[in-house]
Amino acid sequence: MINATPFLWIKNAAEAIEFYKKAFGAVEQYRLTEPGGKVAHAEITIGGAKISLAGEYPDYGILGPETLGSTTVGIQLQVEDADKLFQQAIAAGAIVVNPMMDQFYGDRAGSVKDPFGHYWMIYTTIENVSPEEMQKRFLAMFET
């Protein structure tokens, strides 16, 4: 069996955990804290999905988006009410990257950037679209 779990490195992991609780309803499962207070490892769940996170360790080349200036990873949250969670995340301090709107691939989706530099795509499926139809709709966007 293989189980993939996102692992986020964050400059201030303790603050991030509190933000994720407020923005996405995360539940902290546990936290390992160094004597100085730095989060060495923590696990949260959002819905049933597990996400691990820790502070930065520059000596090992482990840096978060704030230090790097960007991230190459986004996390998708499929929820029953994307609009509600999107607004909740914004109220908690997330910045809108793409506004919430109906998408050609059948989802109502939008994306936000959290205060720690990670991107979150929030969506609700509103229409089941076959891969062939998705491709057709995708190509149609280039015809204007």
UniProtKB/TrEMBL annotation:
It comes from the Bacteria. PROSITE patterns: VOC. Residues 1-125 form the VOC domain. PANTHER family: BNAUNNG04460D PROTEIN-RELATED (PTHR34109), VOC DOMAIN-CONTAINING PROTEIN (PTHR34109:SF1). This is VOC domain-containing protein. It comes from Paenibacillus marchantiophytorum. The lineage of its organism: Bacteria, Bacillati, Bacillota, Bacilli, Bacillales.
